[in-house]
Amino acid sequence: MSGTAPEMLSPVQQRSSASFTRRDFLAGLGALSTGLMLDAGEIGRHTIEVVPRTLKINRLPEAFHGYRIVQLSDIHLDEFTERTFLRLVVHRINQLAPDLVLLTGDFASRDPFPIRYGHEAILHCADIVKELTCPLRYGILGNHDTGIGSQFVVDTFKGIGIPILVNQHLPIERNGQRFWLCGVDDPGTADPILDLAIPRDPDGPVILMSHPPDFADDVVRHPRGPLVDVMLSGHSHGGQVRLPFIGPLILPPMGMKYVAGLFRFNNMQLYVNRGIGTVGLPIRFNCLPEITHFTLQAG
Questions:
Q1: Mapping DSSP to helix (H, G, I), strand (E, B) and coil, where does residue 235 land?
Q2: CA angle at residue 31 from 25 to 34, to 5 degrees?
Q3: Is residue 39 located within the same domain as residue 70?
Q4: How many structural domains does the chain have?
């Protein structure tokens, strides 16, 4: 039988070959980890996703067919959210030219900084957010805002023409028709009073803002819960890090059940915005910062 016998490696060569393979594997693993951290810490954290959503609402007055609302949540300025990034977010919202902008809490971070840094961050946040060109702008408090000081946050944003609704409601009117916009105090750290936030006998649809989404369970059990058509929340950051086949890794109290996107409870719809900021670590993986752009339609 003709042919050339395969070349045999010496024990030294075999060890060298095996060592090279292990080193190559470890180097590749390190490069992959570095790449993932770069993606999560820089690319993923700064790539804004504008999410278009149609909200079909029963009893929506004709004047509000096609009405457009932008939701912005969980800015967490100066913990990891840079002021330049927030300016870019504001610019993107201005390009959308919505009819109404809703800010669903956590404008800055309470921890791990001394309280004076939280106050400074709120002032800087307001200074940037005031550049929103939409004439109708409202907000609510998040858990970090109450930690920094509820009244300080309310007064700061009132000064730039953005009322913060704390267990309050008001009509949004157009061509003699209306829907009701409501906001509760942060359910996790303060005293949400739905009897004050939700009107007793609303003559139009009701949109409720609550920072933590899991408060939806309390809303639907409340006697006035059936009056609420839409609840808008943030708080969860969408999990911030979402691994394939595993899901979100970082979830806060009252943001562990309804993590991101649209949920339905009989008459009420809940939408959970992923926010634009981060807490704990400056990373987002498989969970981009979100600006939600709603268009209202009759249900």
A1: coil
A2: 140
A3: no
A4: 2
* Same-domain status, 17 and 142: no
Does the pTM surpass 0.85? The reply is yes
Note whether 22 and 163 are same-domain residues: no
CA distance to 90, 127, 176, 214, per residue, from 86 (Å): 6, 11, 35, 27
Report yes or no: 228 and 202 within 8 Å, Cβ to Cβ. Answer: no
Confirm whether 228 is domain-assigned.
yes
3-class state of residue 276 by DSSP: coil
Q: Do residues 145 and 16 share a domain?
A: no
Do 161 and 39 have their domain in common?
no
Mean of pLDDT over the chain:
89
Contact by Cβ (8 Å): 238, 260: yes
| Portion of the chain with pLDDT greater than 70, in percent | 86
Q: Parallel, antiparallel, or unpaired: how do β-strands 261-265 and 247-248 relate?
A: unpaired
Query: Are residues 27 and 111 both part of a single domain?
Result: no
pLDDT in tens, 163-177: 999 999 999 999 999
Contact 74, 106 (CB under 8 A): yes
242: tokens are 């979402």
